[in-house]
Amino acid sequence: MTSVTPPARDASPSVPRRLLTTLAAVLATTLLAACGGGSSGDGTKATPGTRTVATAHGKVTVPTRPLRIVSVHAWSTESLFDLGLKPVGVEDSGATYVPPRYLKRWKATAKVTSGADIDYEKIASLKPDLIVGVDVPYLSKAYKNLAAIAPTAFASYSETSTWTRFPDATARFVNREAQLAALKKTYESRIAEVSGAYRAKLADARWDVIQGGFDNGNYWIYSTASPVGDILGKLGVKFAKATTSVAAGNNKSVSYERADLLKDADYIIYYTNNDGSPANNIQKLFDLKAFKELPAAKDKHLVGTSDFLPGSYSDAMGVIADVEKALPTGS
Questions:
Q1: What pTM value is reported for the model?
Q2: Are the C-beta atoms of 310 and 163 separated by less than 8 Å?
Q3: Residue 167 and residue 25 share a domain
């Protein structure tokens, strides 16, 4: 079994102690001036211009209305955009992987990280009053360095985290929970709408969830508890054997030659780039004769989505829209 966690380097980039000390002093002064007071990020009582939030690294004091937010993880970035905020710095996850709805705004924003390669000096130069992210392993290692620059709030992460944890935490960090509630309501309405309109078809068909793997010659099969699996489950989808055989919190890496594992699937949902092309070498699987002979392939029931790794409610609604487009009308 292969973990769904993105591969991380052994250690986050180091930062000279003198630089961190200087940056911390300068930025702490800036934050205190902006907020009319302040405290450390250790959970001490917040002043009127700040509030205390629970994070993966304990209680942190953050601005009540942060104005210069840096996001170091794609899931946080997408939720910031959803919530009507304009971060001053974001991660560089690669333009091809940014869902189309966010691409223009993402391109227009300064880039401060590429995975574990974090540009601390660039982040400091943006004078953030808040840094947000997700506590994946490589960012967890970088937390102390980031917290020395500005208050840093990370959403908790585990292999079995549901995708909703991340937008929920981001909204709490930036004091936009009312806006989040509206997004949730729209998402729930879409679930009800599509599950109701296609109830019979969704109950009769079986789905597998796959992605092109990063292992040489292998693709990945995802579990029913994966982010896409969670959304499909709420729609009332039934899953095929390949997906039900994978334990929650994991994916299964199998050879491209094992296309037969997908033989009982009526539909196969997979990851695409934001231009709709198959992502992460999954085309190697699609090109195989054995795959082309599968029922899902013959029936043209291959469902691509650029929202395969949803980090926001808009991403989740993107998955729903892609599923809806794939289903026959009148079903």
A1: 0.83
A2: yes
A3: yes
